[in-house]
Write a structure and sequence with these properties.
alpha/beta, eight-stranded mixed sheet, 9 helices, 31% helix, 19% strand, carbohydrate metabolism, Pyruvate formate-lyase-activating enzyme, 4Fe-4S
Length: 272
């Protein structure tokens, strides 16, 4: 979940690039659904397979201690945009992303806006595009069967694997995320599991081994991405007058990253 800049549907499309925020133009009468868009990345390479159009939506119910984009927590942090405008913009990049890439909906937490997400996924599938949802899974119950059918891949952030650690880290309960993971497994929907490695917070070997065993039992986890914690977003907390609990935490050593990856591999999972 790595916002950049908001879409400008009036600008001429370039193969890649970031664009500054602008208010959307009037939507066609048929496009009644609107949502809050924080930003886009037009040639994303780390949010799903291939080259992707990544749409970052505003709003998130979690308050992760390591969040590097607290500017996505509230819907009104973004720009109110119609489904038609977003799909028009995606269509300009169709030639670049259709063959080996696709569209990823991220955030914030995209499932804070399920109606908007559902309409966007349907439009992307009508264009023949691969779709991915980057989510914590905390609001997975909002994914109905129709939305699920339009999803090709879920990038699932399981941020910790004990209730105590998860609540300390996010301020929320773990169970809804695990329930969503099990639901995805029951229908064979592919998952890429994402795990942020934070020294002193999410580096306990026993918890990682338990998460790895859980992921292996699901049977639909294509890969695990171990993501080293960094301090690149700390200034956003300070700029907003927010208390940042991880000021003194250093990024994990390469040795710790390697050990963590081996714990997931030990459960038979593919790891990057």
């Amino acid at each position: 979940m790595r916002p950049t800049d908001v879409i400008d549907v009036a600008a001429a499309a370039a193969p890649c690039g970031l664009r500054p925020a602008t208010a959307p133009g009037p939507a066609p009468a048929a496009a009644a659904t609107e949502g809050w868009v924080h930003s886009t990345e037009t040639c994303g390479a780390v949010d799903g397979p291939g080259i992707r159009y990544v749409l970052f939506l505003s709003g998130c119910p979690l308050r992760c201690a390591y969040c590097h984009n607290p500017d996505t927590w509230h819907r009104h942090d973004g720009t109110l945009t119609s489904v038609a405008d977003v799909l028009t913009d995606i269509g300009r990049y169709r030639g670049f992303i259709q063959a080996r890439g696709g569209v990823t909906l991220s955030g914030g937490e995209p499932l804070t806006q399920p109606r908007f997400v559902k309409a966007l996924l349907r439009g992307c599938k009508e264009m023949g595009l691969h779709t991915a949802l980057d989510t914590s899974g905390y609001l997975g119950a909002k994914v109905d069967d129709e939305m699920m059918a339009d999803l090709d891949l879920v990038l699932l952030d399981i941020k910790a694997f004990s209730e105590k650690t998860y609540r300390r880290l996010t301020g929320a309960e773990l169970k809804p995320t695990l329930d969503f993971a099990r639901r995805l497994a029951a229908i064979g929907k592919p998952i890429v599991l994402r795990y942020v490695l934070v020294p002193g917070w999410t580096d306990q070997p026993a918890e990682i081994e338990s998460l790895a065993a859980f992921a292996a039992r699901l049977g639909n986890v294509q890969r695990v991405d171990v993501l080293p914690f960094h301090q690149m977003g700390s200034h956003k907390w300070h700029d907003r007058g927010l208390r940042y609990r991880l000021d003194a935490v250093e990024p994990p050593s390469q040795e710790l990253v390697d050990r963590t990856r081996e714990l997931f591999r030990g459960a038979g999972l593919q790891v990057s």
